[in-house]
Amino acid sequence: MSLKRFLIDNARWLGAGALLTFLSSFGQTFFISIFAGEIRADFGLSHGQWGGIYTLGTAASAVVMLWAGGLTDRYRSRVLGAGVLALLACACLFMATNSWAGLLPLVIFSLRFCGQGMVSHIAVVSMSRWFVTTRGRALSVAGLGFALGEAILPVSFVTLMLVIDWRFLWVGAALVSLAAIPLLSTLLRQERTPQAHAEEDHAFGMSGRHWSRGDVLRTPLFWFMVPAILGPSAFNTAFFFQQVHFASIKGLEHIALVALFPLYTAVAVGGMMVSGGLLDRFGTARIIPFYQLPLIAAFLLFALGQSLFSVTLGLICLAASTGANATLPNAFWAEFFGTRHLGAIKALATAVMVFGSAIGPGITGFGIDAGIGLETQYLGVAAFFALTTLLMVIGVGRAARAF
């Protein structure tokens, strides 16, 4: 099937996926972090304190995701999505109105659980379940919502903060979330799987079986994959979380760094589309072990480079792997473990990912306060991704024999 025909035939479901991934931006680090300076100034927080608050709230959201993520196995995306978007709007209003530092962990928990956690989880589980032979293509198209958010929201909101108080901008984010609910309901008036995930709608995993979450926890493959799931979330999040400080130590204006984000997004979109096409053609097992190699180059450039050009090259490498990260891991769970219990299994992976995004800002924030420079930390990050690549080569290579 041609891409044009695929898009036309599946427009409503792909559109719903892209809408959800875009709206998850309001709970993503790249969005929250653009307000870091204002939040730290209003509440009198150091880098370490703000990083600790972010870690606490995000880690709590990861724990709750272990339970809440399984709801996608029981409820339609239309109903669950609308409910979570309403909660996301409330979380945005919570950020806009809160004036007590003691409540900031709860604010961050609300944004991270609803946005980064559940909204994006509903989108990728729906795409993975609704599409089988074109799963990579569907995840790539739905992932365009992530890319659009990264491309337009940081530049737009940093610019708007020049003339509008940052708290009012969070009110705007709440209104956008609420306005999207009727649109989502319209797109999913008829869901792709009308009969609540009947037996014939499920695809098998390794050994021709449907794996439960308990089965997944007992297989070595999951534990080989944990560092690879955790790493991009932890350290991509840390990079964007520390973007103001990073620009400062590199001698760049923050707006100059933010101006590179559309390029980052364009490369990420390319990475998504290319990885999605390769996934549908060759399968996950042949591709996923190597997709984090560009991250090694990215963090070496961030650590050692001292010019805008080196930062640009680092962002390009970061984006290439980020784009692939939007398709390959999500397809991996469905391909290796089946789709009957995909919501619960993906919730486990999402919890690991969210936990990663919790510890990344905390590690870098406390490291900065302890006198360990961000550039030195990024050398360690590059070494970490070399390790994750080796683990995936071993783990996925062994597990692929079960097909």
Topology:
Elements: H1 3-9, H2 11-23, H3 29-32, H4 36-43, H5 47-68, H6 77-97, H7 104-130, H8 135-142, H9 144-160, H10 166-187, H11 213-218, H12 220-241, H13 243-249, H14 254-258, H15 261-282, H16 284-287, H17 293-304, H18 308-325, H19 328-337, H20 342-369, H21 374-399
Kindly list the characteristics that best describe this protein:
77% helix; 403 residues; mainly alpha
Look at the helices and sheets and give the structural class: mainly alpha
The tally of helices reads 21
Unreliable stretches: 194-201
Instruction: Please tally the β strands and state the result.
Output: 0
Mean pLDDT: 87
Strand content: under 5%
Q: How would you spell out the order of helices and strands?
A: HHHHHHHHHHHHHHHHHHHHH
Q: Supply Rg.
A: 20 Å
Largest pleated sheet: none
Tell the overall outline.
globular
Distance between the termini: 26 Å
Describe what you observe in this structure.
This protein has 403 residues and is mostly helical. Mean pLDDT is 87; it is low at 194-201. The protein has 21 helices and no strands. The two termini are 26 Å apart. Helix content is 77%, strand content 0%. The protein has helices at 3-9, 11-23, 29-32, 36-43, 47-68, 77-97, 104-130, 135-142, 144-160, 166-187, 213-218, 220-241, 243-249, 254-258, 261-282, 284-287, 293-304, 308-325, 328-337, 342-369, 374-399.
